[in-house]
Amino acid sequence: MVRSVAILVLLASPLGLAQTGNPNSDRLKTEAARSIASLSAKLKEVNQPTALDAELAAQCSVNCADSSLQMHMESLNSQRFRASKGLVAQIHQAVDAYIIGTSNGLLLESTPTAWYGT
Question: What is the pLDDT of residues 65-79, one digit of tens each?
Answer without folding.
Answer: 999 999 999 999 999
